[in-house]
Amino acid sequence: MGRSGSLEDLLSVAGGALATLAYSISVSEAPCYARHDVERMSNHTAAAEVLLERKGCAGVITLNRPRFLNALNFNMVKDIYPQLKKWEQDPEIFLIIIKGAGEKAFCAGGDIRGAVVEAVKLAPKKAHDFFRREYILNNAIGSFQKPYVALIHGITMGAGAGLSVHGQFRVATEKTVFAMPETAIGLFPDVGGGYFLPRLQGKLGYFLGLTGFRVKGRDVYTAGIATHFVDSEKLVMLEEDLLALKSPSEENIADILETYHTKSRIDQDKSYIFEHMDKINSWFSANTVEQIIENLQQDGSPFALEQLKVINKMSPTSLKIALRQLMAGSSKTLQEVLTMEYRLVRACVVCHDFHEGVRAVLIDKDRSPKWKPANLKEVTDEDLNNYFKFPGSNDLKF
């Protein structure tokens, strides 16, 4: 259960959705489980990119761009955030369920080409506004006062992580593929990656953030990214059981999730990534990217050499940014991390490596980015400090 196909192939399938950057009828006094009314919160047509519905006692968010693997764009962020805040205050809403349309993806990332690249060229402030709103949404999920259940079935990368990992419950299936591959296009694992990645066991988060390694199936649960694992064929039943709850407590919701989790037998005794955890912890305990690379070279095992090959393709600047980001984020709050990441992303999107990475992976698809600087030695501490510096009045505000 390792890498199947290349990272670039997966990203190209998304049609430009790289994993960095979601997608009223009055309620009677009847018990929640008996309500069949559906409250349509958005422009709910066949073309709506995100569906925001009241179903029973739940607010249900459906990322509705299956053709683009439910990649997150600017309008989806603008729609989701205010509705989420309304549901948080609504006494008739007891939980949130977020899911992706179709069978392939929860959310494969942000709509980089549509939401960011063109905006940077034409109106940089619009690109900044996308990230600002997205990070504010990530924080709203992290601080949400009601149970939040993300059904991370299928591809879940970048922005998809931001829409799920900060919530209380994350349900993976045998078809879940989780990754943070931003260093491949001159970015870094954002959307709060600096918060949740270093809090995974050992040095796993550092490994995932630097290499973009894809964690699959039950390993997504074992890694601590998901809180529960459910057979994909049972997801519809799980959602129906959650929606049928009458004024559910957090414990009621947790009990249902645990019941489905306990009954799952798929890949129960298999773990690919954890065969290598001791080595991952050793390799990625280093304080510099150069030392991590040396550790991989000295190990020389097939798994180590595979990771070395991947890292050597990444933007040297992004690798150094990401390592410092994760080390700093390990002792920060989510809001502090998102503020740091907003500073970083504003600097990155106007730099050479981001545009070159997008060109090589998503536009020309030649898979041969020409990074500047081209090697780690040329990325100085002064360069890094410029990415992390305080921007003054343009900082992120919650």
Low-confidence stretches: 1-6, 8-46
Q: Per DSSP, what share of the residues sits in E-state strands of 2 or more residues?
A: 5-15%
Percent in helix: 40-55%
CATH topology: 2-enoyl-CoA Hydratase, Chain A, domain 1
CATH class: Alpha Beta
Give the CA-CA distance, first to last residue: 40 Å
The coarse overall form would be globular
How confident is the prediction overall: mean pLDDT?
A: 88
Largest sheet: 7 strands, mixed
- The secondary-structure class comes to alpha/beta
Q: What strand order characterises the main sheet?
A: 1-2-3-4-6-8-11
Oligomer type = single chain
**Measured on Cα atoms, how large is the radius of gyration?**
20 Å
Number of strands: 11
- CATH architecture descriptor text: Alpha-Beta Complex
Domain tally: 1
Count of alpha and pi helical runs: 17
Instruction: Output the helix-strand order.
Output: HEEEHEEHHEEHEEHHEHEHHHHHHHHH
GO molecular function: 3-hydroxyisobutyryl-CoA hydrolase activity
Protein name: 3-hydroxyisobutyryl-CoA hydrolase
EC number: 3.1.2.4
Keywords: Branched-chain amino acid catabolism, Hydrolase, Mitochondrion
